[in-house]
Structure formats: structure tokens, C-alpha cells
Amino acid sequence: MSYKSKFGFGCMRLPLTDENNPTSVDQELFEKMVDTYMEHGFNYFDTSYAYHGGVSETAIRKALVERYPRESFQICDKMPTWALTCEEDNDKFVNEMLERLGIEYFDVFFIHNINTPWFKLAENANSFEYVKKMKENGTAKKIGFSFHDTSELLEKVLDKYADILDVVQLQLNYLDWEDPVIESRKCYELCVKHGLDVYVMEPLKGGVIVNAPDEIKNDFKNFDPDRSIANFAFRFAASLDNVKIVLSGMTKMEDMLDNINTFENFEVLNDKEYAFLEKMAEKLDESVAVQCSECGYCVDECPEMIPIPEYFSLFNISKNRPDENIYKLYFDKLADEKVPADNCTYCGTCLDYCTQKIDIPEELEKVCENFENGFSPYEEFG
Ligand code: SF4
Ligand code: SF4
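Above: inputs. Below: predicted complex with iron/sulfur cluster.
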């Protein structure tokens, strides 16, 4: 397999016409991006039942399925594990997904977001057996699951099901490689041990890696002025042998063109670059207050409708600019226009949904304290 074929189009963060409405996909821009991606010889699209409230799948149908021959592209879709209540639900969701996409089969099909509570739901609904049958009857060419939990749980799942699966989709990037919560390296090595391919999600950790503080951005410029930070991050993931796909969720044409350049002129990361990224990971880790990837899963589930990632994003930005009171103004504006962060009732509903295992109520409390205390936020982070 060539490195070029590893570049996948992630359809979880499509361009929007209204940034406050995740279902308002900018179809015209998306189609232009699809055309550019296909013209350059790439062909892998990743979606799920849940992305953009279901609109990701229909947008792909219009931009791709209705405009290109079926054999010219690959589609990966994912079962909404959290919504499975019984065995019959597998069929119900799969039929709905095929219909939304306007296709007869999936190139890749995943059980979405296996973590401790949802592994139980998937087992109760017999979903592993179900996807095995999908492969046998041709509804899916490859099967697997996407994963958001510890290496301990991954080992348990693989010991039980690796024999029937082809792929595991992992969160993998240089910030999470040795992270004690995400454990990218350990999870990757377990997949290698079981002979499974790895598809990579969050290679930029939802933007945390590229939205680094200026000091880190300057370090990258000084190290190699001809490469973007994203270039390093994609090459970090794609240089691994068992990694066959690296997804990028692109909202701008500019980002797509940079990624095309990375994969068309791919260079495996060298030792000097690995050592540099290790240093940058340490520095970045110290500069982030909350490691939120802005996936948005928590927001739909919060009964109070608190815009959690927006508060965390402000918190992170403000950490690197503690002398700029402008972030307090943004915080006040956000709390005025949307639900205030201190509306959290500590119900805990969001916790199972957090892909980064963040203690959301505790972090929201810190957000409130920090902004309300007139902006002296970071004593505790040092
Ligand atoms: S714990 Fe707070 S943030 Fe989480 S779902 Fe409940 S109210 Fe929302
Ligand atoms: S708090 Fe967790 S679930 Fe919510 S957007 Fe951030 S990473 Fe995603």
C-alpha cells in the first residue's frame, strides 16, 4: 500500500453555512472539496449515523454517490452504539444508513465508539455477531470498531473479537501517543499484536495540535519553515506500518490542499523529527487547560444544553494569553447568548459520551472560577 492511499476524508467536521447549526452543511463547498480530493486520486470517505445530526450521510450521497461511479470511492459508516436497545436495532440502523447514503454496501463498517458502557450495549445487542454477518453477506467489505477507552478494555475486546475483525479505528497523534488516559501507543501495539489494520481518527486532536500557542508555532517554523504543523501530525500517524488510513476532518479548501501536498509528496518521519515532536508534545501538554477535541458528543446529551466545547475552547485559548482580558469578554458574551457554564447540575450524563475522558462537570467548575475571578486562571496549572 502506498502512503498516498492513507489519506482519508473525515466527514465529521464539514464546512457549515451557519456555525451555530451543525446540520447546515455547506453543500456547494463540500462538493468542490470532494471533487478536488477525487481529482487528486484519493477515494476514502468516513462518516457515521451521528455526524452533523445525520446530514453528513446525506451530504455524501449528494456530493459523491450521485455524482461518481460506485467503484470509484470507498465509504465507511458507523453504527450508533449508544442508541442500541435490542438486537433488532442493528438492522434498523443499517438500513437507515444505507438509505441515507443511497448505497447497497459499505466498504468499511464500524461499531461506533466502543468504551466501557457502550461495549456492554454492543454485546447486549449482539452487534459483533451482526457485523460478522454483514461481511459474510456482502453488506460490508471490512468490519471493525472505533475505540475511545483504555488499552485494558481494548485488550479485552480484541481477545474476544479480533478473529472476526479487520480494522480498529483509534485516536492516534503525537500528543496522545504516551498520554496515560488515551494511550495511543499501547492501543496501536495491541492492534499490531492481533494483526489488525489501524485507521486513525483525531490525528490533530480536534485542532488542539494546530491551534498551539504562538511559542510552539514558532518552534515549528524554526525547525522546518516549509512544513505546516498538520504536515508533521499526519506524517506521524501515517508513518506507522499498520496504519492504513489517516482521517482529516476538513472545513476549508486550504486545509485540504495542504493535506493533498502532504500525502502526494509523503516522507516518512525521520528520527530527528520524532525527537522534535516528542518535545513539542510535552510543551503542548503543559499549555492546554482541558484536552477537549471539540467532537461535540457531550453537547447533544446535556439536558441543560451547555455549549461545553465552546467554554473549554475559550479556557484553552485564555490560558496562553493570560494578559488579554478579551477572553473574559467572550466568556461573558457566551454565557449571555447561550446557557451559562454554571448551569451544570452535575448530573453526569455527559461523562459516558466524552471521547477524551474529561471530567466535564469538574472542568466546567474550573472554567467558571477562572473567568469569574477576574482572570488569574492558571495558578493550578503552573
Ligand atoms: S454533568 Fe453538567 S455538563 Fe454534564 S450533562 Fe449534566 S448538566 Fe450537562
Ligand atoms: S468535552 Fe469531551 S465529548 Fe465534549 S466536545 Fe470535548 S472531547 Fe468531545
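Confidence is low (pLDDT under 50) at residues 375-382.
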